[in-house]
Amino acid sequence: MATQVPFVRAQRPKKQREVSAFPDRGGRAAGWWLYLIPGLALLTFVVLIPLVWNVYLSFTEYRGIRPPEWIGLENWVKLIGDEEFWASFRNTIAMIVAMVIVPTVLGLLIAAVLFDIVGRKFGGRTASFLRATYYLPQILPVAVAGIVIGWILRPQNGALNEILGYVGLGDLAHNWLGSPDTALLSIMVVLIWVQLGYPVVIFMAALQRVDPELYEAAELDGAGWWQRFRAITVGMIRPEIFVVTLTCTIAALKVFGPIYVLTRGGPGTSTLVPSYYAYSEFFQSQQVGYGATIATALTILIGIVAVFFLRAQSAAERADREGL
Amino acid sequence: MTTSTPALTVPAATEGTANRPAPRQNKRNKPTGVDILVLVLTIVGAIAIAFPFLLILINSFKSPADYNSTGPLSFPGSLYLDGIVNFWERVNFPEKLWNSIWISGTVAVFAVVISVLNAFAIGIGRIRGNTWVVLAFLLANLLPQEALLYPLYNMFKAVGLYNNPWSVVIIFTVIQSAFGTYLLASVFGTFPKEVLEAAALDGASRWTTLWRVIVPISRPTLSVLLIFFFIWTWNEFLIPLTFLVDNSTQTVPVAISVLQGDRLMDVTTTSASALLGVIPTLIFFLIFQRTLTRGITAGAVK
Q: Where is the ABC transmembrane type-1 domain (chain A) (predicted)?
């Protein structure tokens, strides 16, 4: 919240109509739309038309060969009663924990510590080397990650079970991805590993625009590290925190690659997620209509989450501007 | 190269510090016990993160027999390169590498340009309903990719771009620029007003201001975006797998995943394929690491 910034600014009385930040006199408001033409044109072809198409397919019976046949709400009714669909949504909550909550909180702490303690006391090189290491899993193609992780976690002579054997914990050896009780947890650990570097890099880039004098002033005022972290770090890089939480939440809702390469949703439905479910209906069961229904439902959910985030964000930004 | 990194979104919150004596840090270079503990913890974390990469490295140079007798954790008994050579020749690696490089590179550049144009109108121009426009662009990111596959497959087939790498370039330019538009619109939204006013006072047009003022000042953010876009596109695999059916148009991750079902792949060749799959992005990342780094050092030196 803006109120955590310890320097109180004069409040402007009334909210104004949003106007361009670029005060050219000759320019017309409509002119700004010219800049959106290439972006919007591409968007229309690659996203908007397929989106509408997909919504249409969700009202049809379509197996990919004969033309789609209109069946009204049948798919949607089936969806509401579909146990597998709800199971996949329950797993999505686990994905949000593993891809949003843990990485953002941990990433914030790591970024602050690397920037503020490691960077200042042990040199920027050490800090950037560590940051690069945390970022490594992010540059790993998911196809490759699937090979490596599957191989570490596999039951016979997988690296993890071997390590447990070495340190005398051989009893804990397990078919990590193959048994219903550990599959989801294993996937979550993998996703945290993959995801962590992203907030670390974004937050450290954001910290560069925080004025070091702010920290020094706070230090003089007797603020401890934790207080400075909460009041300055978190307050100043709030735009990036929004960006990271939103993009990670979206990624968690539509996570597909890691599930596809590691478990294919199994065993049973223990790691099934909506987008994998949609994919399997599209391409394995050839139930294109029903697959489109799942995908559309997922899109609607993601859309609602995004609108919620964006409104919160623009409210915060406006509050910031008015506070200036 | 400018070494000072201009602040992008600094709210004028420094009044409070103006009349304080500037404290010079003489204590800065004396790490306390807690600092050292923090350093050790971050290093331990980094080792845990890097562990799977070390495994790939060790096992790519082992013979299958060596692997079977000593397991995944030991160092190779002798240097064995056949795994790497096998994979290299089986997939015609240079060709796959080139496909991946030009596709990812083109997408990264196109997507940054589109993001800048969009964000300029949204963040600086503050067009009406800008939240909704951002949301429209974000749709590209919101939609699960599986939902796009069927329609896009049909559309690209109709215009004759199916099995053509440009189809993948177009799709990912849109998907990546969605994120770029969102991030840059937010960054441009807090662009220092004084700078824009100065440019307007000098009679600069919008177009000139964008390329001569805003883009240079935002370069750190733009470089980060460029790096992200390149790596993200490189790593994509569902859409390339679907759209690039010809062996000669495949990207590195697609080639690797296609080979996975292959019975002839022994475990060390698999590891070698993983190694060759990571190295290119790793090199790219290390080259551009400086761009990401500049921020940290600037903050620490100031």
A: 89-311
